[in-house]
Write a structure and sequence with these properties.
The protein is mainly α. Helices cover 69% and strands 0% of the residues.
Amino acid sequence: MVALFAIVGDGLIPFRIIDTYHMIFIAHYHRLTWRLRRERALPTLHNENDLPSTISRDVENGNGGSDTEEEEFSVLTRAQQERLDYHQKKFSKSHTFYQPHETVTHNAFPLRLLIAVVVLLDCHSMFQVALGTCTWAISYHVRPFALTTVILSCSITCNITAGILIFIGDHKTRKKAVVEKILRQELTLEALKKLEKKRSEENGDKVPHA
């Protein structure tokens, strides 16, 4: 059973490596954006986790400024912005909890929580590798029971903690008023459909037969 659990966990390693690769670029360009905005004394972003994707004409011309103070522009070069958009798109396809920009129901997912989740999932995979190595390399006759127990416990703890952080991030970014409004609209629409169906059935029963 332990060996099967380790094999399943090891199979996720290639995907975890790719996710970590995308996360590194996302974190790098976030921190680069924050640093450049501080150095240029630009206004604070409305949401530091939601980086603007529109390129300012001043940045394209090499001036390093912004066209207006009312609208938020990216301080990255066009090539950097395209790379950031690419890695954000790839990561969000792999992990649906990650939202790089504001949506109807959610704000952008916090970068610090994103890094923590990816690191915990990587640790989970590394513990799975260690578990598989101990299981196959050391005979069960001489292998200490505590060894696999501790490694397995650490692996499961990392996975559970990552799930908790994802839940916290979803709770923090969720637009509660919007979600509640959508739910009320859906419930109202469902109630109207049931009422209409009931009326149709009653009208059908009242039609006189020839």
